[in-house]
Each structure stands twice: as C-alpha cells, then as structure tokens.
Write a structure and sequence with these properties.
7-stranded mixed beta sheet; 7 strands
Length: 205
C-alpha cells in the first residue's frame, strides 16, 4: 500500500518570510514617520525660532521676476528648498503646489533650488506647477538658512521672524497648524494695542 508523502510547499515559507519582512519594514516606516511629524510640529531644526529671517531677493525661473522676502512682510511665508534629482522632493511637489493654490492671499509659498534655471523651467512646465520657483545661484540662500538636506521647509511669520524649520516630506496639516497659530498670535497682539483716549476740551464762552 502506497503512502502519500506530504507535499513540500517552499512558496509558503517564502510568503511567510515576505510578510514578516513587510511588517518589520512597515513598523520601521511608521516609527520614522512619527518622529518626522513630531519634528515638523516643533522642536529641533537648524534655525533659532523668533529671530529675524535672513533677507533675500531671487529670480523666478519662469519670467525672471525678482521676489524679495521684504516685499512679502505682513504675510506668513513657507520656503521649500528642493531639487529635481531628489526623489522625496519630487514626490512632495504636487502637495506643495496644491498648498500654494490653497493660499488665497493668506500666506505665500516659495520653492527655492540651486539647479540650472533651464532644468527647473523644463520640470515645472512638464509637471504644470504653479507655485513660484526661485533660482538660488550657488546655493547662497540655502546656506544662509542652514539647509543641510532636502527637502527642507522653513516657516516665517508675518513679521519676518523664523517660526520653524525641518527636513523631510512636509505634512500639509502641520503646516496649516503653524500658520493658524501665527494668525491667532497676530490677532491677539493686535487686540492688545492700547489707544490713547481723545481729550475733549470745552470752549468757554
């Protein structure tokens, strides 16, 4: 009488190992992303919050128009330092462009790169980007803002002071949180302005 031997299914072992590997990598990604988001909310960064942001004037790669930080005073500014050869930068650029479209005058989004203006222009045309793209010749502004990796985001309040900076793919909800706090702070400071009462004098007849 023939005995039926149990079949060997090597693909089951491979599948099990693949699932375990995926779970481990997924857990690592979630932990890393958690710390990235916490860093975006506050704490850390290369710049000192509360100090005046370094002024700059750069050309927009589309039309050569010069844009200065000083000309934007009164509105919060979000700077995004990036490059077309950076996979994370390219992955987040649609979100940055959408964040710019949602501004509607409440804030300003500027992207800054030291790549060739021709390469940048070709990229933004191909991707149909509307967000301003500024050419940082020689990386002068990047150095002034202590950018040591990209993408890097820098948030500046309406008074031209640094709020926060962080590296990695930006979370739009966290950016909104920072800008919302800035708006509330601006309103609160405005409400504390004390005006001197007018002095009325009676004319004696």
């Amino acid at each position: 009488m023939d005995e039926t031997k149990p079949q060997n299914w090597p693909w089951r072992a491979w599948l099990r190992e693949a699932l375990i590997t995926a779970l481990i990598l997924g857990s690592i990604y979630l932990v890393v992303r958690h710390f990235q988001l916490e860093a975006q909310r506050g704490g850390g960064g290369n710049l000192t919050p509360g100090v005046q942001a370094t002024p700059f004037e750069l050309q927009e790669v589309r039309d050569g128009k010069k844009i200065s930080l000083a000309s934007l005073k009164g509105r919060p500014v979000v700077l995004n330092f990036w490059a077309t050869w950076c996979p994370t930068c390219v992955a987040e650029m649609p979100n940055v462009d959408r964040f710019h479209a949602q501004a509607k005058g409440r804030y300003v989004v500027l992207t800054i790169s030291s790549e060739s203006p021709y390469k940048l222009r070709d990229y933004i045309v191909d991707e149909d980007l509307q967000v301003p793209v500024l050419y940082d010749r020689g990386g002068r502004v990047s150095k002034a803002y202590a950018v040591d990796s990209i993408p890097t985001t820098v948030i500046i309040d309406g008074q031209g002071k640094l709020v926060h900076d962080f590296s990695g793919k930006a979370d739009l909800d966290i950016l909104e949180e920072h800008l919302d706090r800035d708006r509330k702070s601006t309103r609160r400071n405005s409400s504390h302005v004390v005006t001197s009462p007018a002095v009325f004098r009676e004319n004696k007849k």
